[in-house]
Amino acid sequence: MIDLKQQLVEWRYHLHQYPETAFEEVKTSAYIAEELKKMGLEVHGNIGGTGVVANLTVGDGKGVIGLRADMDALNLNEIKDHPYRSQHPGKMHACGHDGHMTNLLGAAKLLSERKNFNGTVRFIFQPAEEIGKGAEAMINDKLFERFPVDEIYGLHNMPNLPVGTIHTRPGPIMASEDNFVIRIKGKGAHASSPHMSVDPLVIAAEIILALQTIVARNLDPIETAVVSCTEIHTDGIRNAIPSNVEIKGDTRSFKLEVQKLLEDRMRKICESICEMYGAECEFEYTHEFSPTINWDECNKIATMAAQNIVGEKNTNSDCAPFMASEDFGKFLETIPGCFVFLGVKNEGEELIPLHNQLYDYNDEVLVIGAEFLAEIVQIRLSK
Ligand SMILES: [Zn+2]
Ligand SMILES: [Zn+2]
Questions:
Q1: Are 264 and 331 within one domain?
Q2: pLDDT digits over 334-363, tens only?
Q3: Cβ-count burial of 40 within 10 angstroms (0-12 exposed, 13-18 middle, 19+ buried)?
Q4: CA 354 – ligand 1 centroid, Å
């Protein structure tokens, strides 16, 4: 019989070779559905686009646990030369979602063989995590009406944490992400005649600096937020004062109140500065990712599962939060659950960050991740 690790490696190398990006995970979801069916699970596809849900019921227990993995890759060219390198030019699994899918397939295999619980497990494979739209698409497609769950759990591999360690925390663990566009309409003129213009570039410079006062002077210093202007575009002629300037950027925070404060103060600053100089202002602010906020009870369960699988010394139940964003936060808005980080860094090896063209999931944590997810079910739906 093929052993578990060998099976997981085979699955991951296949998924790694055929990376697909947001909402295009067609081959990926078909492959996953096929493997889940071979385990005897009841499989449903096309949920929120390419999403897949597989159900496994043992006994007559009423409890239902959801376990979730993300399926999408990134628009990057893989540069590491290994036998299972990406066969889709310009796309690669640089965030380790190939590993997450394999961890979850592994958990499905373990639970369907062991049947050591009483209740129902739903294996949820979601599309489009990287753009923060897949969870919402599945929820809008009646995911939880069709397949209700009491609690939901998920994980992300972390290249800066030692291999085989599991880290989590109660409360906020990953930030929200909002995007903004500020359009300033002034009056263009010859570069030599500033008195005939309303210069939107000078106004933009003042806005960019003033936006930094929100975190420094409006936000309670105990709270956390980031406001970053990341792009500036003008009409683009060297010897003309432009008529239009567009500033784009991104904000991060952990709480809805802070998110609201950032949006309100930004709008006020942009509109007021533009008005002061006689320019028109258009301020656009969009919510891209919800903050990922772990539920206390579920954090305790995840911690217990981690301790059972990797031991107490390799479990951190109160790690530092991470300012990046994660689509799993959308599920946690309404469903109790917990998200954890799975360390993948081998000692002495160079750190390759997520989203790097050399990134590759560490096969050493394929079984650990699968056992950890299965353990949550065993604890929560104990016979
Ligand atoms: Zn990513
Ligand atoms: Zn990711």
A1: no
A2: 999 999 999 999 999 999 999 999 999 999
A3: exposed
A4: 7
